[in-house]
Design goal:
alpha/beta, 60s Ribosomal Protein L30, Chain: A, Alpha/beta knot, 2 domains, 7-stranded parallel β-sheet, 5-stranded mixed β-sheet, elongated
Length: 260
């Protein structure tokens, strides 16, 4: 690493990290991945993603020295006020890193060696998406597939909530129209398991297929009827009366744990 101490928040070398409240969702910023916090920056540094730069307060940079020493990138040391001015909000985690976004993976390539897959329909909440990736990593899910309406898994908040695990779980956008694009999984021998509060089979009663794909819909609307019609089975998680559903990331974690 190359340590550089900076005191001017207008320094152009900090442009990767500027105005992150809204800038990192603009199309021109989609080529950059932002990691926030010591644990997430460490996972980024150890991932295949090519790190561009790191910025942080002295204590957080010191905590990351074991991994940053191996990187040939600039590491900008600033005080907390400069960091917050650059980013556009109070940075409580004290360190951020930027990386180049790799070319997108093809869904067929992601599925080639996978046996346990999550498939997401219109999941557009960044934090739910990040939590789901963290759960996928925890329970050994091999890949995540998204339809075209899903949020960006590499958006800053998704990366942060996933604790950086979105950087290690392969993902791809399904090609073609939803839900016809589920035919790709059928061709590769996956059983399609739709998770819905109205499922006819409970999760504890399902026979575990050799290759399975859990279908998950957005918070609120859930899976579309068209997607459920293409599933091999509709699964529900048994719950006490008076509770009609769970947060999508929580429901996914229960399903992943059981099926894995």
């Amino acid at each position: 690493m190359h340590i550089v101490e900076l005191s001017d928040p207008a320094d152009p070398r900090l442009d990767d990290f500027r105005d992150l409240m809204d800038a990192d969702v603009r199309p021109e910023r989609r080529g950059i991945v932002i990691a926030e916090g010591v644990n997430v920056v460490e996972r980024l540094a150890l991932s295949p993603y090519r790190v561009r730069a790191v910025v942080g307060v002295p204590a957080r940079i010191d905590a990351l020295r074991p991994v940053l020493d191996a990187l040939d990138v600039p590491v900008f040391v600033v005080d907390k006020w400069v960091l917050s001015t650059v980013v556009g909000f109070r940075v409580t985690r004290g360190v951020l890193a930027s990386a180049d976004r790799p070319p997108p993976l093809a869904a067929a390539d992601v599925l080639h060696l996978a046996t346990k897959v999550a498939v997401l329909e219109a999941l557009n909440d960044f934090e739910n998406l990040g939590a789901l990736f963290r759960n996928a990593a925890a329970f050994g899910v091999d890949a995540v597939l998204l339809d075209a309406r899903c949020a960006d898994p590499l958006y800053r908040r998704s990366v942060r909530v996933s604790m950086g695990h979105v950087l290690r779980v392969p993902f791809a956008v399904l090609p073609g129209e939803w839900p016809a694009s589920l035919g790709l999984l059928r061709e590769q021998g996956f059983d399609l398991l739709a998770l819905t509060p109205n499922g006819s089979t409970t999760l504890r009663d399902v026979d575990r297929p050799d290759r399975w794909a859990v279908l998950l819909g957005a918070e609120g609307p859930g899976l579309s009827p068209q997607a459920m019609d293409l599933a091999d089975v509709r699964l529900r998680i048994p719950m006490e009366s008076g509770v009609d559903s769970l947060n999508v990331a929580t429901a996914a974690a229960i399903a992943f744990a059981h099926l894995s």
